[in-house]
Design a protein that fits this description.
single chain; alpha+beta; 6 strands; binds iron/sulfur cluster
Amino acid sequence: MNAKFDALAKKAVELGAADARLLPADAIVFDPRSFLKCRFGCNRYGRFWTCPPNLNLSPERFMAAFERYRTALMIQSPDPKISQEVTLAIEKEAMLAQGCMFAFGLALCVQCETCAFPEPCNFPHLARPAMDAYGVDIGKTVEALGFQVTFDPEGKLLPAWYSMVLID
Ligand code: SF4
């Protein structure tokens, strides 16, 4: 893996992430069962511009783009707001400081209390899809990095939120 991207992991922590680890893009695990979990039981389905079925970019087109990436940064954050902010900041840093013009963040969009959908997005420059919207098995992917996905008794994600930047 390209050592020059270590600076991005360090920067993510400086910006408020609990941890951030580089991984090869081919270590990211996909499982189509994620689509079932998105479609049924998630109260964001159909209500956010950044969630299915409102993505306006099919999983097939996403995968065609994904296959061009070699390196990603997995970011662990203490809450979804920090997760989104750090992800966008690292995406920008990768573009401007590292010249990775196709750097792309995936993070749950929590920018607005209520999404503007179906009216136009309030902050399109900040809106990115979540990893699971495109079928990433977050649990399996982060486990291999030494992270763990855990839930409290009410099903709330603990102790961390995960987001990712596809770097290069
Ligand atoms: S920025 Fe606001 S309006 Fe746009 S997708 Fe996110 S929550 Fe919805």
